[in-house]
Amino acid sequence: MADPQERDDDFLESLEKAMEEEFEDQMAEITNEEAEIDALRAERDALQDKFMRALAEAENARKRSDKDRREAAQYGGSKLARDMLPVYDNMKRALEAATDEQKEVSAALIEGIELTMRELRNVFAKHGVTVISPEVGDRFDPQLHEAMFEAPLPGTKAGDIIQVSAEGFMLHDRILRPAQVGVSSHTG
User: Fold this and answer.
1) Which of 52, 56, 60, 132 has the highest Cβ tally under 10 A?
2) Which residue stretches of the chain are H helix?
3) What is the residue range of 82's domain?
4) pTM exceeding 0.90
5) pLDDT value of residue 187
6) DSSP assignment, residue 2?
7) Residue ending a domain, choose from 43, 60, 75
8) How far apart are CA 170 and CA 150, in angstroms?
9) Is 163 found in the same domain as 87?
């Protein structure tokens, strides 16, 4: 028979071993739970990052859409306006070509053309179309003018406008058509 002390030692040893195993199991469980928590945190952070990116992308799309809508409202009629410019040019030429005698004989016709021209200018103004009307002697500006020819003309400086062939037009802040001009190449 075993000694009671030996039995107590065996019991204590088995109890200690069981407690160590229990402790190790609990530590492993805690480690697993910590790993799960870390994985959940990483997943949460990834989802939060995705959400923030999607939110930023939606805001950018909204801003682009607003800009496109404003530009469509402001510049959407540019093709029609550009197509109307030759009508304006032809009416202006008709008025300029009429002699005083023709104006007397055809006063009603001339008045009708002038009224139509005035109405066309009003419609242009209503939609943000402005006329670029350079004068002879003005400086050539490549942002507003198109040089149709260059010629030396005494009494002028190089870059002076010496002839206006056609007026130009802007739609708000964009050029529809530059004014067509002749430019002096004279340097003396």
Assistant:
1) 132
2) 4-75, 78-97, 100-105, 107-126
3) 76-184
4) no
5) 67
6) -
7) 75
8) 24
9) yes
Give me the mean pLDDT over the 105-127 stretch: 90
Amino acid type, 86: P
On whether both 105 and 68 belong to a single domain, the answer is no
List the structure tokens of 48.
């939060």
**Residues forming beta bridges with residue 149, ordered by sequence position:** 182
- Predicted confidence band at 62 (pLDDT cuts at 50, 70, 90)? very high
Q: Which pLDDT score is estimated for 59?
A: 95
Domain count across the chain: 2
144 has pLDDT over 90: yes
* Residues 102 and 23 reside in one and the same domain: no
Say if residue 93 is in the same domain as residue 151.
yes
Residues 69 and 86 in one domain: no
How is residue 38 written in tokens? 């870390």
Calpha distance 138→168 (Å, rounded): 14
Cα separation, 67 vs 7, whole angstroms: 88
Same domain membership, residue 68 and residue 95? no
Lowest mean pLDDT, pick from 90-99, 118-127, 130-139:
90-99
Distance between CA 147 and CA 158 in Å, rounded? 12
**Judgement on whether residues 133 and 109 belong to the same structural domain of the protein:** yes
- The DSSP-derived string for 96-128 is HH--HHHHHHTHHHHHHHHHHHHHHHHHHHHTT
**Averaged pLDDT, 136-158:** 92
Tokens linked to 112: 């009708």
Q: Are residues 94 and 160 in the same domain?
A: yes
